[in-house]
Write a structure and sequence with these properties.
Blueprint lengths: L4 H16 L13 E12 L2 E6 L4 E17 L10 E8 L5 E8 L10 E4 L7 E12 L3 E8 L2 E8 L4 E6 L10 E8 L5 E8 L9
Length: about 210
């Protein structure tokens, strides 16, 4: 499956975000292909991560030497402040505008990384917007945030109940059978998948992206 240059940039931004929780100066390179794996851990044996994907298919991911793991921690709409850098997956609404599917509050040191709005595969027709929050207005049913990227402005409604998370420390021991994971992988020419980082659910919070 081939991805656009913008999608590759977004995947790199996600990769860097995950690594930033664990190392101060992550090094990375843009892979030729990206496959995002979402599912439940079946096993982790050495560098072989077995996942039952959300589509119900078995997936094997080879973890690179020195691979890193991050968890997600629960946050709230009220934690989203002007100036924050966020990644918001959203869908177009029938009445116009976009409605959030999830919000990831990114670390300050990654502000500007992967900035833009790109196609995403959380749901059909969904997009991922990496941008800086200009303002957040609360309403009876939730909130609406205005975000800025590359001189453009976008308003995204965040209904009450929308998953809002940030990143938190984790260890390889957290990548255990039954844990929910999100893994942005590189697809090799032979079809194999590899990754240098894993996002794992912890303390009842699962990766929503």
């Amino acid at each position: 499956m081939q991805f656009s240059k913008a999608s590759k940039l977004l995947a790199i931004a996600v990769t860097t975000t995950l690594l930033a929780v664990n190392v101060s100066s992550p090094a990375f390179a843009g892979p030729a292909d990206q496959v995002r794996v979402r599912g439940t851990v079946v096993s982790l044996n050495g560098d072989q991560l077995q996942v039952n994907s959300r589509e119900g298919k078995p997936v094997t991911v080879t973890l690179k030497a020195g691979w890193k793991v991050s968890a997600v921690a629960k946050a709230s709409i009220g934690d989203i402040k002007p100036g924050d850098y966020v990644g918001i997956a959203s869908l177009p609404k029938a009445q116009g505008g976009d409605g959030a599917l999830e919000v990831l509050i990114l670390p300050p040191q990654l502000k500007g990384m992967g900035e833009g709005s790109f196609g995403w595969d959380l749901k059909p027709n969904s997009t991922m917007t990496n941008a800086t929050v200009a303002d957040a207005v609360k309403s009876v049913s939730g909130s609406t945030v205005t975000v800025n990227y590359h001189g453009q402005e976008k308003k995204i409604s965040i209904p009450d109940g929308t998953p809002v998370v940030t990143l938190a420390p984790a260890t390889p021991e957290d990548v255990k059978p039954g844990a929910v994971v999100f893994v942005s992988t590189e697809k090799g020419t032979d079809g194999s998948l590899s990754a240098g980082q894993v996002v794992v659910g912890k303390n009842g919070v699962v990766p929503p992206m």
